[in-house]
Design brief:
single chain; 238 residues; mainly beta; Jelly Rolls; seven-stranded mixed β-sheet; seven-stranded antiparallel β-sheet; 22 strands; 0% helix; globular; metal ion binding; Quercetinase_C; Pirin_N_dom; metal-binding
Length: 238
């Protein structure tokens, strides 16, 4: 029997700092909800809009897998490992913070905002050597398909992390449906709708809604309208 938890878009935490407009699916910074601390190993899902020329100054992380998915605009990155790069729509970035890193992120454009998801997962192994990876994927692969953008395996499609997790992006036309089969027994799924409306085993999800599901083997996902969404299969224990 499947178990689900529904997080409607308007129940998320919200902080508008002027330069940063952030929505939090899980407790973050000044927003704390004891019922929304994490979903399995998924600790943070932030939906951020960064103003032109603004960003996060250098700050530390450790023992966390940090995934950044740009949705609009560019994000410039610098870190204590010596990496300097800019990511844009169609790129995926991951940092395994491990024993500790410092990094900064900012919008390099003077007249354009940047939108992104930043996602944190607890790692399978603590105190690993910090690492950075960035790829560009073919966005056409997600048309009426689950395009894998992250896995535990360096030889698989997408980036890899120190956790038994698989992420997929999908872009479904209205009326299209497809079954998702669980990769690893005991994992759960958190589905986040980027735009449009979908149903997951009959549960309707609208733009920016999130749905956590456990105790399942397959999911029937159907687009009610043209829709884009992110699937995050993650361990429920760590």
């Amino acid at each position: 029997m499947k178990n689900t938890v529904l997080h409607k878009a308007d129940t998320r935490g919200h902080a508008d700092h002027g330069w940063l407009n952030a929505y939090h699916s899980f407790s973050f910074a000044s927003w704390y909800n004891p019922d929304r601390v994490q979903f399995g190993t998924l600790r943070v899902l932030n939906d951020d809009t960064i103003g032109a020329g603004m960003g996060f100054g250098t700050h530390p992380h450790d023992n966390m897998e940090i995934i950044t998915i740009p949705l609009e605009g560019d994000l410039a990155h610098k870190d204590s490992m010596g990496n300097e790069s800019t990511i844009k729509t169609g790129d995926i970035q991951v940092m395994s913070a491990g024993t500790g890193i410092q990094h900064s992120e900012f919008n390099p454009n003077a007249d354009l905002r940047t939108k992104l998801f930043q996602i944190w997962l607890f790692p399978k192994t603590r105190n690993v050597t910090p690492r950075y990876q960035q790829i560009t994927y073919d966005t056409t692969e997600q048309k009426n398909n689950f395009a894998q953008i992250l896995s535990p395996n360096p030889d698989d499609a997408g980036v890899w992390i120190h956790q038994d997790a698989w992420f997929h992006l999908a872009d479904f036309e209205a009326g299209f449906s497809k079954n998702y089969e669980l990769k690893k027994e005991g994992n759960g799924m958190y589905i986040f709708v980027i735009s449009g409306t979908i149903t997951v085993d009959g549960q309707e999800l609208e733009t920016r809604d999130g749905l956590g599901i456990t105790d399942f083997k397959t999911l029937d996902i159907k687009a009610t309208t043209d829709a884009k969404f992110l699937l995050m299969e993650i361990p429920m224990t760590y």
